[in-house]
Write a structure and sequence with these properties.
By secondary structure, the chain is of the alpha+beta class. The protein contains six helices and nine strands; from the N terminus they run E-E-E-E-E-H-H-H-H-E-E-E-E-H-H.
């Protein structure tokens, strides 16, 4: 078994002493290295500064550091999709969308520890807001009658200072033998720990499995069994929407879906070069 490509993501959200959040996503793969930075108001989540750093690329680098003005003044929350696409157009780099998107996701996760700043009077009020917002969207929020642990029972606290949230993601492509490949994706963050494994014959999934090692509730772990739905699938160019359908949509796990999507992106850019 030979490792032929891998990529790594590190997302971090820190609280500073001056009412700001410092968030970044650092990305390294076999040919590229880049970082997306956001400086965000801790109360409004409005982006005060956005910075793009390019450390390494297979193409000539025009500017190693750039202010990303299309993101300034927008909210680092669920409504940020249009601004993220504008940032990618501004930078002329499709990698900007996933990196800034991961940074925004980290800020949303960090809200768990910013209750008073975000206008919540209690853990229960915050928990209820998320229950209403996410109802039916994933294994946890589609089976609330079976859930045995609340969000803050899982998290363990609602107050943090300094580092609020971290997430590590990795995807690796291995050549097993000619025409056969293994894709592995891992995620570990402040709240979750997930692994997926896809064994491929050319582009067709021969085996698919995974495990959720750390989750908000034990019921989340049942979502790993849905990976069997990928068996026999040609995953060239498959959309994330189609992956979500195959992996259970509201009965699945968003992190499993994200990891499988991350893995298929490696194929879209690399397998054509190595098969």
């Amino acid at each position: 078994m030979k490792n032929i490509f891998q990529r790594n993501w590190y997302i971090e959200v820190r609280r500073s002493d001056n009412g700001q959040l410092q968030a970044k996503t650092s990305y390294v793969d076999t040919t590229r290295e880049a970082t997306a930075h956001l400086l965000v108001d801790v109360n409004s989540f409005i982006i005060e500064e956005a910075l793009w750093e390019e450390q390494k690329s297979s193409k000539p680098i025009g500017a190693r550091t750039r202010q990303v003005t299309p993101l300034q003044g927008s909210e680092a929350y669920f409504s940020s999709g249009l601004a993220l696409r504008e940032a990618a157009t501004f930078l002329k780099d499709p990698l900007a969308v996933p990196l800034f998107s991961e940074t925004v996701k980290g800020i949303i996760q960090a809200e768990t520890f910013l209750l008073s700043e975000r206008g919540y009077s209690s853990e229960d009020e915050y928990d209820q807001k998320w229950t209403n917002f996410y109802l039916g969207s994933c294994r946890y929020y589609s089976n609330l009658d079976k859930v045995t642990m609340s969000w803050y029972e899982h998290v363990g606290e609602s107050k943090r200072s300094g580092n609020l949230f971290v997430r590590f993601k990795t995807q690796s492509l291995f050549e097993l033998r000619e025409g056969q490949y293994l894709l592995i994706g891992n995620l570990s963050d402040s709240f979750h720990e997930v692994n997926v494994r896809l064994k491929l014959d050319e582009f067709t999934v021969k085996e698919a499995d995974g495990v959720l090692l750390r989750t908000p509730d034990i019921i989340c772990r049942e979502a790993a069994s849905l990976l069997v739905n990928l068996h026999g699938l040609d995953i060239r160019g498959i959309s994330k929407k189609e992956l979500a359908r195959l992996l259970g949509k509201g009965q699945g796990c968003v992190h499993v879906i994200d990891l499988v999507s991350d893995c298929t992106q490696i194929l879209d850019t690399l397998v054509r070069k190595v098969v």
